[in-house]
């Protein structure tokens, strides 16, 4: 202590440690968080960060209490827009708390606050309600396809979008981010980029692979890095096309309007079919779920292969797939055991004529 020029009183009173800088205000720190997060996180939380700036922009990060955050979340729940598919504003309150937790996560990493001083971590999120989406029956899918093919200003584009989702079970972002270089027409695969910055190769039918290639050759700009789905004038398709498509479908189908059916219902439809016919492991791979916490321990050893996903797709579409030919284990065993080991004939005798034991 003498060598360090530290006294017992300084250690007891904490005087030896340098004083912490005052925490920044929300207005000062949120722009840094916006620059640090992924585009998907930015889209999800930007509305709520703006609300935090309006209410607490002048306050320092270490000022709000858990009770104040809970009150803020309750006001957000009560003021949430009432839409046909709204469920009491619980999602708005949940997203506000998540947006605050994101802010405090970066503040803690920058040592602007201590982990114990994170008020958002001590506020419980509202319990998430069970999704009302479910698999659509075949008749309902047929009606959706009929409306898309007989209405609108570009039925070819709408039908291509619907088939893309029905075959791949991808999310909306996966279809909109597909580029021409992501399309492998030889092996009938498409590279999907979805939430969480995940990427995966997904089998598609030869018909869809050819249709996507033709679509881009007719409407694209020739750049392999350009988006595949496009309007007739060559402009890339965006979220507005999805909104217009499903608003039109719901205007013709009252049941779809009552349940607020959207493209995500097609994901439920395809994955339910795959799970019923091919099991949970293949459905898990088909969906592109990568979170190991959502899988049983046995799935570490039994995770599905790309070939098995292709086999499920071939059964779903009724088209052969280049990667779905035969079971690789059966082929291997037949080749190595049947030919190399020269298994005896089915008479039950050994090769030398002695009875088989």
TrEMBL record:
Any one Pfam family match given in the protein's UniProt record, by short name: Phage_integrase
Sequence ranges assigned to domain Core-binding (CB) in this UniProt record: 24-108
Tyr recombinase domain span: 131-314
InterPro entries tied to this protein: CB, DNA_brk_join_enz, Integrase-like_cat_sf, Integrase_catalytic, Integrase_recombinase_N, Tyrosine_recombinase_XerCD
Skewed-composition ranges (Polar residues): 1-19
Region annotation (Disordered) ranges: 1-23
Domain of life of the native organism: Bacteria
Keywords: DNA recombination, DNA-binding
Family to which this protein belongs: Belongs to the 'phage' integrase family.
Name of this chain's protein: Site-specific integrase
Organism this protein belongs to: Actinoplanes flavus
Upper lineage: Bacteria, Bacillati, Actinomycetota, Actinomycetes, Micromonosporales
